[in-house]
Every structure is written in C-alpha cells, then in structure tokens.
Specification:
Blueprint (H helix, E strand, L loop, with lengths): L5 H14 L8 H26 L7 H10 L5 H18 L7 H28 L1 H6 L6
Helix pairs in contact: 1-2, 1-5, 2-3, 2-4, 2-5, 3-4, 4-5
Length: 141
Amino acid sequence: MYFVDKTLLNKRLAYIEEMSKLVDTDDKLALERTCQMLIEATVDVGNMIIDAFILRDPGSYQDVIDIMEQEKVIDSNDALKFKNTLKWRTELTRNYTDIDHQSMKLDFLDNIDAYKNFKASFEHFRKTDPQAVTAFSTDDV
C-alpha cells in the first residue's frame, strides 16, 4: 500500500468541485478548459486512490472509473455519468478544431452531478472502507 499526498489529493478534489460550477458558460474556450480539466483531475484523483491500494494498473481513463466503481469509491450511477463525459477528452485533445460546443456543454450539464458528488463520495469511501482508513488515516483528508 502506498500513502498518498493528502494535501495534493485535497487540492484536486476542491479543484473538481470548483470546476463543476463553471460548465454552464457560453465562452467556448472556457468551456473547453473546464471540461478537459474536470476529466483530467478526476482521473488523476482516481489514479491516486488506485495507487494507494496497489489495486491494478488501469489501461485507460475508463479503467480508472471502472476500478473506482468496483472498489466502491463511486456508485454505478456516478460511474456511468463520468463515462458519458470521457468521450470528450478525445475531442478536446485531438479534434479540437471541430468541437460541437453545444453538445459537449449539454453532455457535461447532464452528467455534472458525478463531478459535484466526487468529493463526498471519496469522503464516504475513506471513512467506511477498512483499507482506506489505513491509507488515509490523518485529519488532513
């Protein structure tokens, strides 16, 4: 078991929480940045959690979400919502000149609860999973 950088984990969870409030914008560049960073930060936090338990190496962004669902960090409803937005990473990193901003915005707004719930979901997991209590055992998480 690895011990995670709890300060960094908290910063990223707070970042996700703040970014989730910014999706409802008409500024295309701000929307792109917000959506991409929601995906990246969520996967970063997921990887930190997975690393803490030496579970398995995720092969993709979707694997990170699947592992968090299997380990009960997030529920199946939130896992589905995260997966519904992961497709936009390819658009944002490879097809960035042809993004359908309205469709992306609607997809994120339809699924934003998963991002808003993520910090609370992790807190619940940390407090109730026996292994999590060991890996995240100080007051700073």
